[in-house]
Each structure stands twice: as C-alpha cells, then as structure tokens.
Design goal:
InterPro entries: F-box_dom, F-box_Sdz-33, Zygotic_Embryogenesis-Asso
Strand content: 25-35%
Structural class: alpha/beta
Pfam family, one: FBA_2
Helix content: 10-25%
Organism: Caenorhabditis nigoni
Radius of gyration: 25 Å
Largest sheet: 15 strands, mixed
Strand order of the largest sheet: 6-5-4-3-2-8-9-10-11-12-13-17-16-15-14
Distance between the termini: 54 Å
Protein name: F-box domain-containing protein
C-alpha cells in the first residue's frame, strides 16, 4: 500500500477535505491509516455507506456504496490458516473494488480492481473497528462461523459496530463447549441492537434460549436445524417474521400455535413459516378452528394444496397454507393479511 504518495497531508484541513471528497472509498480508508489526524479528518466528512457486511469465516468485510463495492479480505498465511479469534494478525490484506457501469449500448459491465496492502500491524478486530468507524452506516451485518473460533463479549463489543443483522453458524452435531460459549457470546453481545437473527445448528443453553431470543423486538427470526426446538420455545415470540427450517414441530404443535394466534397471542407477527419432515394432514392442522374461506389448488388433476382464511378475536385475518411438494416434507405458512 503506497500511503507515502498522499501529497496533500500538509495542506490546510479544508483543502484536504475537498480533495478527500473526490477520492474513492478505498483510497479514503488508505489515507485514514496514515495518522490519527488523518482519521479524524475523515471522520469529520461524515461519509456514508449503504451497507457493511462482515464475515468471520474468510475473514473479510464488504462495503456497499451504491452501485459499487469494496471488499477487504485478510490473509492468514500461505498454508490457508484460519482465523481463531479477533486478535489474530493477518499476513496481508487483499482489497478488491467492484464497479458497475454501462456500455454505450446500455449493456451492464462490471470492472474489478485488486490491490494487496500490508497488515499495518493491526489485528482483524482492529481492522474491523477502523473500517467501520471511517463511515456512517445504518445497516451492519455480520456472519459468524463458530467452528474452532473463540469470541468473547468484550472483544466483540470493542471491535464491532452495533449490528442490525447477525447470522450464526455451527457445523458439528456435537459442538464443543468452546463453540457453545462463543455462539452464546455473539448473541449476548449484539442482541439488544439486532433486528434480524439467523441461527443454523446453534446449540443454546438455558441462560440464553430460543425463547429468550424470540422475546426481543425482532423483525426477522430464522432458525435452521435446531434439534430440540419445541412449541414452548415460541410461546413468547415477538418477531414480525419467523421461519423454521428442518423443524421437528408436529401438526398438533402448529394447530396449537394457530389457536394461540386466534386468541390474540403474537400481535406483531406478520409471517410464520415452518418447513420440515411431516405429513400433510389438514384434519390435524385445522382441528377446532373455524376458517372463513377455503381454497383448493389442483396440480395435474390432483389436489396438492389448500388455503384457509381465519380470523382472530380482534378481527385480524390470516391466510394458512400447507403443501407437500417434496416426499415426506411439508411446508406450512401463516401470513397475516393487512
């Protein structure tokens, strides 16, 4: 990285500010690394991003700026070493810029430019903190791949911005105690700020359960491959949208869920979807319910789907769908009608 080529460092701040505003985002970040004064000057510009996505698996951070994007990928060594914690120092940083444009014939074209920067003596956590502090951004998203990586609450809060969305993944059926603790730490660190949460095979404990997470003020809550999920975990659900994939919930559980909704539970809910192994038995699903409307859908002369419209005690209507387009696999969906 050729930081030494910035010739305007000794210019007055107002002139420097005007020059900085003409530069590309990766150039501004490069300049901000030259000194504390340079970083302070960049902060004063109040430059904004559409979205920033952090991935601890590769690890990398992607910055969305309108039709363009900048990605910082931290190299961990020639032997494809992986990050173990946020204090790891990369060997170098690959910077790639993607620019969207159009040819004269109005055909879209994408141009890629790549650079390799030094690590600046910074850890991955310090890089994340520095880049995220350079711009104003309303939407920070992070993907945490937990396997053999240690995350503690203090480091997460120190290095990361307040996340809007988090995706947490584990990949082993029997996770280690360290993996369980790291997953818990990620959720505890950011749960007060998050609006969207995606959990895949994440083992949880009593001190932070699915029920605890579902009680928070979420827009979207997605749960995948959670072996011990029970209906009781959803009794205090406070999310607008909830999707459960590879669910073990039975049709009797879903019937009970619908009845709770008709009595006024889940007032914020707009959509509730469940996908998993089951049998499509409408008699079980709709037992004790009195739908207002019924619609039958046929495919190749055979009835494949039904839809029902129900109403709760407060006059709010919802559509119920259930279909089994895949063998031994049933999808259920409740959508509140506005």
């Amino acid at each position: 990285m050729t930081i030494q080529r910035f010739t305007f460092q000794r210019l007055p701040n107002d002139i420097c500010s005007k020059v900085l505003k003409t530069m590309e985002h990766h150039e501004i970040i490069a300049y901000s690394l030259t000194s504390k004064k340079a970083l302070s000057l960049v902060h004063s510009l109040g430059l904004s991003l559409d979205k920033a996505q952090i991935n601890t698996g590769r690890p990398e951070i992607n910055l969305d700026i309108g039709h363009n994007s900048v990605a910082f990928n931290w190299n961990m060594g020639d032997n494809e070493e992986e990050m173990t914690n946020l204090d790891d120092i990369p060997t170098s940083v690959d910077v790639s810029i993607r620019e969207h444009g159009y040819l004269e014939e109005f055909r879209p074209v994408i141009e890629f430019t790549e650079y390799t920067w030094s690590n600046q003596g910074k850890s991955i956590g310090e890089w994340i903190k520095h880049i995220c502090s350079t711009f104003r951004c309303e939407y920070y998203e992070a993907e945490f791949r937990i396997w053999r990586r240690r995350f503690d609450i203090q480091s997460l809060r120190n290095y990361f911005p307040k996340l809007r969305r988090a995706l947490v993944y584990t990949f082993e059926e029997e996770s280690s105690e360290q993996d369980i603790q790291s997953a818990q730490n990620v959720l505890k660190a950011f749960l007060p700020y998050m609006k969207d949460i995606v959990l895949h095979c994440v083992p949880l404990q009593d001190n932070l359960s699915i029920q605890h997470i579902g009680m928070t003020n979420l827009k979207e809550f997605r749960i995948s491959n959670h072996r011990d999920l029970k209906l009781d975990d959803l009794l205090a659900l406070n999310a607008e949208r909830c999707t459960i994939v590879e669910s073990q919930l039975s049709l009797r559980d879903l019937n009970r869920f619908i009845k709770l909704w008709t009595k006024g539970s889940y007032p914020k809910l707009k959509n509730f979807a469940v996908h998993g192994r089951n049998s499509a038995d409408w008699n079980v699903l709709m037992k004790g319910l009195q739908p207002e409307e019924e619609r039958r859908i046929q495919v190749d002369g055979a009835e494949k789907r039904k839809e029902y419209i129900i109403q709760n005690d407060y006059g709010i209507r919802a559509r119920i769908k259930m279909f089994d387009d895949m063998p031994a696999h049933v999808s259920f969906e409740l959508t509140v009608l506005i």
